[in-house]
Write a structure and sequence with these properties.
The complex is a heterodimer of chains A (308) and B (300). Chain A is mostly helical. Chain A contains 15 helices and no strands. The relative contact order of chain A is 0.14. In chain B, helix 1 packs across helix 14, helix 3 packs across helix 8 and helix 5 packs across helix 12. Chain B has a two-stranded antiparallel ribbon. With 300 residues, chain B is mainly α. Classes of the chains: A mainly alpha (308), B mainly alpha (300). Chains A and B meet through helix 2, helix 4, helix 5, helix 6 and helix 11 of A and helix 1, helix 3, helix 4, helix 5 and helix 8 of B. Chain A: It is a multi-pass membrane protein. Chain A: Its main location: membrane. Chain A: Keywords: Cell membrane, Membrane, Transmembrane, Transmembrane helix, Transport.
Chain lengths: 308, 300
């Protein structure tokens, strides 16, 4: 086994027991001298910090329900509660179209990268072939290359294909997989017992069937993690939409929000209530997704630091 | 046997073919082409014309490149350590929080879900000099907060403070590392009379050093490429022309050169320089960390 194989056993423990409460097993030190007091102090500190981390959301949401004159009053409950901002943002900007574009791009980006990365990861995990480890080293090395270095030629490629100005460059690159996800999924595949596939082979299963019928279902938690990561990356991205999109009708929500900020924040019109509302609309879908996949998301992040 | 081998190889290449294709077209070719473009003048409309090292000569003399580099270095030097310290403290607290840690962990992680554009907007609103929440809060303690978003001296500190809001991922990684430290080490040291601080210094930090190292590397690379928050808050797109030199990060200037002024050759030279800088900084960090980072797998 090569050195890249060493951390393999760690990740699959998640795949086997994703529902197990992470808090329980270790880490809780056996009764310190004054457990009650210490715990109260710790909880108080954490509570204060939690307010600092969550308050900006609360502030933003509450500001989106205020009339323009009160946006900056820093009150939690609006003096004059209004839903007008949410109505007028639809008139001021093609918000619905932007949301649809974002959903379109994000879903396609997520689906394509998950499928293609899983295929590639399976290719690296299941088969033995000459040059495999060297090639996988290249996969890992590409993770270190800053995006800025390839940005211009990649733009020129899409430009020569006539794709600039369309949504295609925002997701189609994902058809080829992504190094980080390939790495992540390969770890999970390596954790699957080989006997499983030897048995399937005796039963006459071909490579494709082994992949889709056995490997993929068993790696569902890792596939979910990959999908969540990519959803987040794709939904929140501003750089690519800035580079590739020109017409307002093709904008994604982050790109739209930036435009609104230029127009209503710095364009001299000072409609901060609209900017605040658009910020909520941009952020909320991501928060919803997060709460739906919270456990996988956080466990997935936890394992990424264990590359060692 | 040999035909089985051959068919296995064929199947493997079939599975990895998407990546091979993507690597050739979207990584290897662009890497080489960026190098070539950096030696040319290219405005997308006319063909690239070879100019030798002119772009690099210009790069060295461009005061804006120097400014952007300085801004980026300052941001990295300020943000990476503060993010690390904060996330380590949060992880330490969470590790001791028992059953409630899941709740708090979620709360700390939540901001990581916020689109960077929205963080840029929040930065302008919360750190607003007159009526922003941050200065209102400081006012409770009799502190007269600075004009975070307009005073050139305070723009970078403001960006650094805002970046602390998204330490959630590092917290989660560190917490996972803390949980994997064998309890026996603490039990043994307690018998030897070691208190919390000595345990932290001599057990906890060494045992989670690989996670710390990972976070430092990742955060540094990210800091050198940071773009969206500063661009959103301090630079206009489209017809808006507002800009603020104090927030001109390298990635922003590179982006402007490439896609606003269409100086593709010059921008390519800039990206080559960024590549070299990031590689050098990463290599230095790996060098410095050698011997002080503990990897569990090496022990086996």
């Amino acid at each position: 086994m090569t050195s890249t194989d060493t951390p393999a056993p760690r990740v699959p423990t998640l795949a086997v027991a994703p529902a197990a409460p992470v808090e329980e097993p270790r880490g809780r030190p056996p009764a310190p001298a004054r457990p009650k007091l210490a715990r109260i102090v710790i909880w108080a500190l954490l509570a204060v910090l939690t307010v600092a981390f969550v308050y900006p959301f609360v502030w933003l949401v509450s500001a989106s329900f205020k009339p323009r004159s009160e946006v900056f009053d820093n009150k939690l409950i609006p003096d004059h509660f209004t839903f007008d901002n949410y109505l007028s943002i639809w008139h001021e900007a093609p918000m619905g179209l932007w949301l649809m574009n974002s959903v379109f791009v994000t879903v396609l980006a997520t689906v394509t990268v998950t499928i293609s990365s899983a295929c590639v990861a399976w290719g690296f995990a299941h088969f033995r072939f000459k040059g495999r480890d060297a090639l996988f080293g290249v996969v890992l090395a590409t993770m270190m290359i800053p995006g800025a270095v390839t940005m211009i030629p990649v733009y020129l490629i899409w430009d020569s294909l006539g794709m600039t100005g369309t949504l295609t460059p925002l997701w189609a690159g994902n058809l080829f997989g992504s190094a980080f996800y390939i790495f992540l999924l390969r770890q999970f595949f390596l954790g699957l017992p080989r006997e499983l596939f030897e048995a399937a082979k005796l039963d006459g299963a071909n490579n494709w069937q082994m992949f889709t019928k056995i490997a993929l279902p068993l790696t569902k938690p890792a596939l979910v993690v990959t999908a969540l990561f990519e959803f987040q990356a794709s939904w929140t991205d501003l750089m690519k939409p800035l580079i590739y999109l020109r017409d307002s009708d093709t904008f994604t929500v982050p790109r739209g929000l930036k435009t609104l900020l230029d127009q209503f924040g710095f364009g001299g019109e000072w409609h901060w209530e609209l900017i605040v509302t658009a910020s909520v609309i941009t952020t909320l879908p991501m928060i919803v997704i997060f709460f739906l996949g919270q456990r996988q998301f956080i466990d997935g992040i936890a394992t990424t630091g264990n590359k060692g | 046997m040999s035909t089985a081998r051959a068919s296995e190889t064929r199947a493997a290449w079939l599975f990895i073919s998407p990546w091979v294709l993507g690597f050739l077209v979207f990584t290897l070719y662009p890497l080489i082409y960026t190098g070539y473009l950096s030696l040319t003048d290219y405005d997308v409309i006319n063909d690239p014309s070879f100019v030798g090292l002119d772009n690099y000569h210009q790069l060295v003399q461009d005061p804006k490149v120097r400014l952007a580099l300085t801004n980026t270095f300052i941001f990295a030097v300020l943000s990476v350590p503060t993010q690390l310290v904060l996330s380590f403290l949060l992880a330490l607290l969470l590790n001791r929080a028992g059953r409630a840690s899941g709740f708090f962990r979620t709360a700390f992680f939540l901001p990581k879900m916020t689109p960077a554009v929205a963080i840029g907007v929040l930065l302008l609103l919360l750190f607003n000099g007159q009526n922003g929440l941050v200065n209102t809060f400081l006012g409770w303690f009799g502190i007269n907060g600075p004009a975070w978003t307009t005073d050139p001296n305070w723009i970078k500190p403001g960006l650094v403070m805002m970046s602390l809001w998204t330490v959630g991922a590092s917290v989660v990684i560190l917490l996972a590392a803390l949980r994997s430290v064998p309890q026996e080490l603490y039990d043994a040291s307690r018998i030897d009379g070691a208190g919390f601080w000595r345990q932290t210094r001599h057990i906890t930090i060494p045992m989670v050093s690989s996670a710390i190292f990972f976070i430092v590397i990742i955060d540094t690379i990210a800091a050198f490429q940071s773009f969206t928050e500063a661009y959103t808050a301090y630079f206009g797109s489209g017809n808006s022309t507002y800009s603020n030199d104090a927030a001109l990060f390298y990635a922003i200037y590179l982006f402007q050169q490439a896609f606003r002024f269409l100086h593709m050759g010059y921008a390519s030279a800039m990206s080559m320089l960024l590549f070299v800088i990031i590689m050098a900084v990463t290599a230095i960090q790996i060098r410095v960390s050698r011997g002080s980072v503990y990897y569990e797998s090496e022990q086996a």
